[in-house]
Amino acid sequence: MCGILGGVWKKADNSLEERVKAALLTIQHRGPNDSGYEITPLHDSRLVLGHTRLSIIDLSSAGHQPMYSQDRKYSVVFNGEIYNYRELRRELGALGCIFRSDSDTEVLLAAWQYWKEASLSRFVGMFAFVLFDHEYGTITCVRDAFGIKPFFYNFEDGNIIFASEIPAIKALKNSEVELNWQRAYDYLVHGDYDTNEQTFFKDVLHLPPGHIIRYSIATGQLTEPEPWYTPRIEERAELSFADAADELRERFLTSIRFHLRSDVPIGAALSGGLDSSAVVCAMRHVEPEMPIHTFSYIAKGSSLSEEYWADQVNQHVGAHANKVVVSPLDLIRDLDDMISVQGEPFGSTSIYAQYRVYQLARERGVTVTLDGQGADEMLAGYSGYPGQRIRSLIENGEYSRAIRFLRNWSKWPGRSIKWGIGSTLGQFTSGKLNDSLRRLDGRTNIPEWMHEGSLRDAGVRCENTRRQCPVDLRGRRLTAELSASLHQRGLQHLLRHGDRNSMRFSIESRVPFLTTKLSELLLSVPEHYLISDQGETKHIFRAAMRGIVPEEVLNRRDKVGFETPERDFIIQNSDKIRGWLKDGVQLPFLSSDRVLREFELIVEGGRKFTPQVWRWINFYRWHQIFLG
């Protein structure tokens, strides 16, 4: 786990090296153990490859980057882990490759030397890397299938700049960064972020998950992002539930074994829910003697607390439990740091719990943690995606079954018939009809605290596009939505939260659910294996984990997760927040006076509390930190 940066400058001035050094400092937390950079003159350009290292596998200096292939044809800067590097190393050794280190980075280079882009499908891991071909003068930028590891880039006037985090992009750019108005609108009005290649900074882009771009130094041409991985969602109807559960169990345990490979201490983030509990219990199952340290956020005195469930799992596996309790004052104290670390606005204060969990892991001397992220998007978790499932049944002509499903689904805690019907209607509506339904719920595309004219003049699309699923497969609407959530939207902001929060404390967060072998299996099973006709989410996974996870946990009907009592935090700190909002931001499309008036009504109880409040606070503070 590391940080990478660099680029190609056609007309580099004498300040380039100082900018590179400054940029490396902005990502030093991602790799405090080592750093390095090279500036290479090529044609009339300069190529920069820079790296900061968090030593996880092969702690020696042999893992230093930039690293060269054995034949010196390739050099690379790499962020991530290749968990199956030992297996690949043996395979490459049989082909005649000689290794000088035990580093997975050297395995990546050797794999590329022998298999080129075909090596990507062989990797089990998380990665973002830039590889320079010295013979052809090209750089290749790659991001893993799920986008676990970040990759930002900027392309202007034939120059390309890339980095693991946006502050490094800012340090490397010759010009100032500007606000992307479209992303600001999407976030403030619709809570939409990290769902496409656009960032909150104009002309700074994400490389999409599972994509690759190439840049020619000689021509200054950059290719459009191309997918190197495309998920398959066709149904394997011949696969019985029992066989699918057995296969899922084996693939999950294999993934856990891979993710436990480390030369530094390992622990796990434990919320108390099924996903993180399964990770911890599987760790014990595959490593009976391994010391396990768990790290949990506890919402003391709140109905959101899951301490009881975390205790059950800790007792079951004999783990060393580490817990953190936070207060509203803690959040205010750390808020600016968390906003700075995240780099862009985010959805709620719930990620503060995660921030503190990683801080606790660092304090306890743990460098690697396993996390349950991605399971909900893979297994139809959360509320079970009722609208998509019902639409699949309707499209398959199973009308009675759809009605029975809705009735059974609505009986679970936190659900209702009304919610299920609304979710289903949302599947069959779009455009103006969808906007009309939103207005009935008190929502609008142009709230009173925004100036429509300024937005329209700037070419901002004032509409909600987040609902539209980019994958269209009749009768497999649930599976299509899960596939989109895993690889195109939904999961991306959660992975961003986890990456930035963990790296803030130089922790490598691993996500064993997110392997292509696991996702391809689960995207191929009949939809009722994922959410049963009785409305049980993660149906097949619960079956697969029998005998590994305690029955009490498997049979839970509620789930809270890493949530904080956000309303209490905000109301109790309303005086300080009011000052932030009064300072305002000078943007033509935003009326700070009206935002403040709305906030006062909510604090006084005249308006209901909604996630909108946090989005105001977050955007204002973020803008003041990064663009103020």
TrEMBL record:
EC number assigned by the record: 6.3.5.4
GO cellular component: cytosol
Keyword Lipid metabolism listed: no
Enzyme class: ligase
Catalytic residues in the record: C2 (for gatase activity)
The Glutamine amidotransferase type-2 domain, residue ranges: 2-218
Keyword Amino-acid biosynthesis: yes
Catalytic reaction annotation: L-aspartate + L-glutamine + ATP + H2O = L-asparagine + L-glutamate + AMP + diphosphate + H(+)
Positions contributing to L-glutamine binding: D104
Alphabetized Pfam families for the sequence: Asn_synthase (PF00733), GATase_7 (PF13537)
GO MF term list: asparagine synthase (glutamine-hydrolyzing) activity; ATP binding
GO biological process: asparagine biosynthetic process
Pathway where this protein functions: Amino-acid biosynthesis; L-asparagine biosynthesis; L-asparagine from L-aspartate (L-Gln route): step 1/1
Keywords attached to this entry: Amino-acid biosynthesis, Asparagine biosynthesis, ATP-binding, Glutamine amidotransferase, Ligase, Nucleotide-binding
Domain of life the protein comes from: Bacteria
Gene3D superfamilies per UniProt: Glutamine Phosphoribosylpyrophosphate, subunit 1, domain 1 (3.60.20.10), HUPs (3.40.50.620)
Family affiliation: Belongs to the asparagine synthetase family.
Protein name, entry field: asparagine synthase (glutamine-hydrolyzing)
Lineage summary: Bacteria, Pseudomonadati, Pseudomonadota, Gammaproteobacteria, Pseudomonadales
